[in-house]
Write a structure and sequence with these properties.
There is one protein chain. This protein has five helices and four strands. By secondary structure, the chain is α/β, with parallel strands linked by helices. It has one domain (5-153): Metalloproteases ("zincins"), catalytic domain (Collagenase (Catalytic Domain)). A four-stranded mixed sheet has the order 1-2-4-3. Helix 1 links the parallel strand 1 (5-12) and strand 2. The radius of gyration is 15 Å and the shape is globular.
Length: 161
């Protein structure tokens, strides 16, 4: 396990899912890329779910009645005010809910490797936990440029190419 990241990985689906160690590498690379703009260390829960659970959570929290690739639930409204959970020495960033069925379908449709798209969704989700968004063109450009650099450092191609 990476020394800067702690991952609580939950599998609530039958699909193959990235390992805790792989997730820790992806999250640590994202935090490394952010440098002083991020917390440097962190704890994250990543839950892998079936499409029905993804759809239910997406409907409840985003009012979109369909499954989605990744949902992010930040632990704090302000990423500068992260808390540390009892028994931990790292700030709690929040929860990611990833639906492998959607991620793998998108990867096939986009001609990407399954692993590269899983990495992209994890990096994308972590950035959301840390306050990044893509609601405006400027926000999208900033977030995408970080994703491209992180994925490149991990050996994956530009997900937007």
């Amino acid at each position: 396990m990476n020394g800067t990241v702690s991952i609580d990985r939950q599998r609530a689906c039958g699909a193959r899912c990235p390992s805790r160690e792989t997730l820790a590498q992806w999250v640590a690379s994202t935090l490394d890329e952010l440098g002083s703009r991020g917390p440097g260390v962190g704890e994250v829960t990543v839950r892998y779910v079936e499409p029905e659970e993804s759809r239910s959570l997406n409907a409840q929290f985003r009012h979109k009645d369909r499954p989605t690739n990744v949902l992010s639930f930040p632990a704090a409204e302000d990423p500068d005010e992260l808390i540390t959970l009892p028994g931990s020495d790292r700030p709690y960033l929040g929860d990611l809910v990833i639906c492998p069925a959607i991620v793998e379908r998108e990867a096939a449709e986009q001609g990407k490797s399954r692993r590269a798209h899983h990495a992209h969704m994890a990096v994308h989700g972590i950035l959301h936990l840390l306050g990044y968004d893509h609601l405006t063109d400027e926000e999208a450009e900033q977030m995408e440029s970080i994703e491209i650099r992180v994925l490149g450092s991990l050996g994956y191609p530009d997900p937007y190419a």
